[in-house]
Design brief:
mainly alpha; about 20% helix; UPF0449
């Protein structure tokens, strides 16, 4: 008879997550027609606004968030 213990399968190590600089380079290098940008673009705009304009300082009339965003609880957490 064979051994009844399960052999552990060794998985390869995960690569390091990308740095902020790598993510920004990736986003800036993506074409404006990339599905990620066009899918989430507000209706009525031909192209989403990207680039340095997104990093502008807040205007006087704009509201600031008073609390950080938190994810919605999953159904099993709320019971």
């Amino acid at each position: 008879m064979g051994s009844k213990t399960k052999k552990r399968v060794l998985l390869p190590t995960r690569p390091a997550p990308p740095t902020v600089e790598q993510i920004l380079e990736d986003v800036r290098g993506a074409p404006a027609e990339d599905p990620v940008f066009t899918t989430l673009a507000p209706e009525g705009r031909r192209r989403p606004v990207r680039g340095k304009a997104d990093l502008r300082p807040r205007q006087q009339g704009e509201r600031e968030r008073s609390a950080p965003l938190t994810p919605d609880p999953t159904p099993w957490e709320s019971q």
